[in-house]
Each structure stands twice: as structure tokens, then as C-alpha cells.
Amino acid sequence: MVRCEVLVIGGGPAGSTVARYLSRAGVKVILVEKEKLPRFKLCAGCISARAELLLPPGWKRQVLSEIKGGLLGFRGRSYVEVSSERPVAYIVERSSFDSYLVEEAVSSGAELWEGVEFIGFEEGKAITSAGKVKADIVVGADGFYTKVGRFLGYKKRKFFRSLEFWEKEDIGERVVIDIGLVRRGYAWIFPKGDEVSVGVASSGKEDLLRVLKDYASKTPYLREKSVGRPFGWMIPFAEKEEDLQLGKGRVALVGDAANMVDPLLGEGIYYSLLGGKLLAEAILESQGDFLEAYRRKVREEILPQLSYAGKMARIAYRFQRLAFGMGEKAVSRFLDLLTGKKTYKDLYRRGLFELLLSPLHFENFLHIIIDKILERR
Ligand SMILES: Cc1cc2nc3c(=O)[nH]c(=O)nc-3n(C[C@H](O)[C@H](O)[C@H](O)COP(=O)(O)OP(=O)(O)OC[C@H]3O[C@@H](n4cnc5c(N)ncnc54)[C@H](O)[C@@H]3O)c2cc1C
Question: 275 C-alpha to center of ligand 1: Å?
Fold first, then answer.
């Protein structure tokens, strides 16, 4: 049997970040990843510029495309475009980006168990395919289908289903996002080197393949009007404190395992990195209950962002034409969100204010109020 201070399960951005911060501080960490690296991860790979502060200094070598603007479309037809002089986001290929982060954790001192699977707990020990580990703290950073989380009795309740494929195309240094196609979610075209990632995510029950085919045939930003080979995966999200599943006892969850994803855009990489840093800090700083310290940090730094994103998602996806109609100014505020100049709270307040002032939107606004009242009853 092997002993360590912290056993981290999962070598995605969340797990490698916890491992990197802790090892750098001298903690004995074992990082267990079930796949051989580099491993495939379905993801559009868009990282907001505000995540830069959470990444190791050399990370820009992983960047395939810089994003300096975006188009918001309605059903693949009308579009509004916004742009920025400086990059607001970066696109990476997840297999090499995640491997790079794991290498950084290892060079900080973490011991990597690659191709080793976490199986369960038995008599206070973690069972892996390479043997038993006795750890003071176990971190579940094992993604959407978290085995660690399931051992704690958690179930996923809120999530987007998604489909993604890639093809050769050039859309410049910008992303295309289309609403109005699914009940809650959107379709996207993101650049990825000399290719684009095309996808759709929804928390509704639509036939996503049909939606994606229809979208590919309509959008003016794809020359091939057909869908390549699509892959599917789930994206969990949290919009309230009770949606976050942060752990129990000496076991903490982080990243997708804890549902740390924005409920409006489905952005998860930034929150995995931030959650990983907060968890490492809680472990390092707390004299007693590290989980309580972690909860407090998440409540202060992550929850406000997710809950305001959730409020916006409930309105914007209920009234998608109205959201699209708010135009360029509203869309350009998202660029400030991505760079960290504005928060979701700023965007939410500003959006409501504009709705109130606009007679054009007054009728829709009344619907929102009525809806709110009905939701509370
Ligand atoms: C189609 C799609 C597009 C997306 N696009 C974006 C985007 O553009 N931008 C963005 O910010 N987010 C995006 N996301 C969300 C993002 O991919 C996730 O939020 C992010 O990967 C979460 O990181 P993580 O480290 O928590 O989990 P993961 O990246 O899922 O890593 C979990 C790791 O744990 C390992 N593991 C699992 N089980 C075990 C086990 N039992 N034992 C050992 N290891 C195990 C897995 O192999 C994996 O390496 C997208 C998601 C999807 C599905």
C-alpha cells in the first residue's frame, strides 16, 4: 500500500491544477489519470483571457487560435458582430493542453500514475487499478461521470448534452454563436488552427443531430453544408449553491465533477482552473476543516458568477429573440466578461436596466416578471 498526503483523481485542467499548486508548496501528491497521455477530450477548447492568471507562464505555446471578436446569430440567419483589438479568448487542442498541464504538475513535484483507474474506496483507502492508496485527502477531478462523486452519493441533475465535429474552414479570429435553435443552449463555430469546431449544446430534449444538420446547412460560415463525424458528451452546470457538489469528509470534488460550469455559455475550463486553485489554497491554509474553507472560497469567488449567469440564462433562453435583439452593445459586454473587466453581475444589471428603458422590450419584460412570480409560487 502506498501513502500520500493528497490523492488527485483525474488529469484534466481541474486535477492538474490542484496537483500543481499543492506540489509546488511541498505537499506529497499522487495524480491518477486513467488514460495514457495525451488523451482525447471532446471540447471546443475556448479559454477566456481572464484564465491566463491561473495558467503556468509557458502556456501560450498551446494556443492554436486567438479570438478577437464574435458573431451572435439567430437561427443561422441574422448576425451581429463585435470585435476587440486584443485577444479576448484562446483556442487550444485539449489533448496537448491537458498533457502540458499534467507535465507542469509533475515538474512541480507531483507523482503521476498514468493509465491507472480509480475504482472505489475500501476501509478508508482508495482502490486503484495499480493498488491501494492511503491518502489524508482525496480530490475527485474525474469529470462528468465522476466515480468519486458517485461514491459520495451525488447524481448529476443539470447538464447540457452536446455534439461536436470538426472540418477544414477559415472563419478568422472570431467565434460564431447562434441562438434560437434549441430550448436552452446554442450552436457554435469556433476556429481551431486550420479547422473549425462546429457543435451544439442543449439542456433540452431536442434531437441534436437533426439540429446540427439543419444548422450546418443554413449558416453562411460553413462552406461544407453537411455534418462531419460528430462526437457527443455531457456538460454539467450549476446555477445555485445546491447545484455545486463539493465533497464530503476528507473527499473534495472540483471541475466538472463538482458541476463548476457556467450555465449560460457552458464555459468549464476557466472554472476548473479557478476551482483547482481555490481547493489547493483551502488545503494549504486551513488548520482544521479544509472542506469548509473550500466551500467558503467557492461561495465567494465562483458561486456569484454562476448564479448571475444562471439568472441571465433563464431570461435569455426563455426570450431568445429578445436576447438577440439587444444588439451589439449587449454582445460586446461579453468580450469584457471574457477578459475579466466585467462580471456576470455587471452584465445582468446592465441588461435589466436596458430592458426597463426600452419601450420596444416592455411587453417581453412584463412576461419575464410574470414568469418570475409564477416560478416563486
Ligand atoms: C462538446 C464540448 C465542448 C466544450 N467546449 C468548451 C469550451 O470551448 N470552453 C470551455 O471552457 N469549456 C468547454 N467545455 C467544458 C469543458 O470541456 C469541461 O468543463 C472541462 O474539461 C472540465 O475539466 P475537468 O478537469 O473537470 O474534467 P475533464 O477535462 O473531463 O477531466 C477529467 C479527467 O479524469 C479522468 N478520469 C475519469 N475517471 C477516472 C477514473 N475513474 N480514474 C482516473 N481518472 C479518471 C479522465 O480521463 C479525464 O482525463 C466543453 C465540453 C464539451 C463536452
Answer: 13
